[in-house]
Amino acid sequence: MKTYLSYLPPFLQEYQEIQAIAKVEDKVLEALWQAFTSLEENQWIQTANEEGIRRREKMMGLPGSTLSLEERRTRILSNWNAAIPFTDETFRQWVDSMMGDAPYTLVIDGSRYLVELTLHKMYSARTTLFLTTGRNMVPANMEMRIEFLYNQYSQCHAFTHGALAAWQHRQLSEEAYAQ
User: Fold this and answer.
1) Which residues pair with 108 in a beta bridge?
2) 56: burial class by Cβ within 10 Å (0-12, 13-18, 19+)?
3) Which of 38, 9, 1, 8 is nearest to 22 (CA)?
4) Does the predicted model carry a pTM greater than 0.70?
5) pLDDT by residue (tens digit) across 74-98?
């Protein structure tokens, strides 16, 4: 950002009084620029900072939480994108936006009145949104179910006992690891 002094004609830039005023004005203009940048970033959920996320949570009636900023942003996007009425296509789009890069399988079975989400256990933190917001989208007569996939013995039998000893049992069953 240019300094206040650089906008003045050269003959005024030489005076000490003008230079002192310019130093003060530079601080004020920098603070204004920071406020403008923050306001501009907070217009969009994807770029909002802590203050912008907190404001949106208050607007949507979401409780304050101990989740990370990214998890709170995902929760807000999920609520924002929750489109009612329910159709298979809009629900799949919503689940895609909510799950992000997490691999999952979604089965919507109208004949059994069932909506089933299957995903790896390591992505379980994302399921609360699926159950809360999703429950508002899915018709009340449909059951919502989540199934977790765990690592199986067949996935780790190639490792030696010594290599597996470095891992805790929870890590072996729930976290993805190199094959």
Assistant:
1) 115
2) buried
3) 8
4) no
5) 889 888 877 566 788 888 988 888 8
